[in-house]
Design goal:
The protein is an alpha+beta fold. The chain has 3 domains: 65 residues, no CATH class; 110 residues, no CATH class; 86 residues, no CATH class. The chain contains 7 helices and 11 strands. The chain has a 4-stranded antiparallel sheet, with no helix packed on it. A 4-stranded antiparallel sheet has the order 9-8-7-10. Strand 7 and strand 8 form a beta hairpin. Helix 4 crosses helix 5 and helix 6 runs antiparallel to helix 7. The longest helix has 21 residues. It is globular.
Length: 273
């Protein structure tokens, strides 16, 4: 996939930025810089570029990324499952492991931070998020496997910087976006437009909504199947919602909407096991 990082300089000067590079779980090719750097160098396992920029000037880095999931089962994995996730980095550091901070992006474009333990990923935040909501990463087509984040990851992220832990570094890049057309946003807009017109009494039929459903099935189908096996009540929210949406374009069925709302609130308010 082709991606682009963007950085806007808030003030004139030389800005040092981490650049994409090869790492476990990611292969980077065809790197293009919109501005020639003064210097490109490696330090502490990172690749940096120094760029002279004017205030307000935008730097863009384009590249091809081939991410792959990492699936390791380190010996410390089982012991951590007995401890609260927020304590994991400290526990491992106390036991003599090398703990580093990792900064980058999920491929949704959202900045993300995790840890590297002796070089292996540790992501307490996503572990906890998937425990609370198994569909948390469904938009990325990621199945709900919280334990995978103790020594591995889903293969839908970009690592840009690794540094000491504890540390205060932050990621200077402001945006990660995919290059090339993505049919999902216009298909979603068409589907929502059809729903709006149908709600106003303009009959559109289901056809404007179906391309959106087809794209969701292509991107999220395997992950949804696993979600259905692991958290069936959470998974059933999705077909109930789309069934109600389709009924709006044909013959509105309020019971489907009420069923979705009931399941939605039940999944979020039920006592955790």
């Amino acid at each position: 996939m082709r991606l682009a990082l963007r950085f806007r300089a808030l003030e004139a000067g030389v800005h040092t930025l981490p650049l994409p590079q090869e790492a476990p779980g990611q292969r980077v090719e065809d790197l293009f810089l919109s501005r020639k750097p003064l210097e490109v160098y490696e330090a502490r396992g990172n690749l940096f570029g120094r760029f002279p920029l004017e205030a307000g000037e935008v730097l863009e880095v384009r590249f091809r990324l081939a991410p792959t999931p990492l699936r390791e089962t380190p010996p410390w994995r089982e012991a951590l499952l007995k401890e609260p996730p927020e304590a994991w980095p400290g526990i491992l550091a106390h036991r003599g492991h090398r703990v580093e901070r990792a900064l980058g992006f999920l491929l949704s474009g959202r900045p993300h931070a995790w840890y590297l333990v002796d070089g292996l990923p540790l992501d307490p935040n996503l572990f906890q998020a998937l425990k609370e909501d198994p569909a948390h990463l469904l938009p990325l087509g990621v199945a709900p496997r919280p334990e995978a984040y103790l020594g591995g990851h889903e293969g839908r992220r970009l690592l840009l910087f690794r540094g000491p832990w504890p540390g205060e570094e932050s990621l200077p890049w402001g945006e990660l976006r995919a290059l090339g057309p993505d049919p999902l946003p216009p298909a979603r807009a068409l589907a929502l437009g059809a729903l709006g017109l149908s709600a106003l009494g303009v009959g559109t039929g289901p056809w404007p909504y179906l391309p959106y459903l087809a794209l969701l099935l292509l991107r999220q189908g395997p992950a949804f199947r696993e979600l259905l096996l692991q958290a069936p009540t959470r998974a059933l929210e999705i077909p109930l919602f789309h069934a109600f949406a389709l009924s709006v374009t044909l013959d509105p069925r309020p019971e489907l909407g009420l069923g979705f709302l009931g399941l939605f609130f039940w999944n979020r308010l039920k006592p955790s096991s």
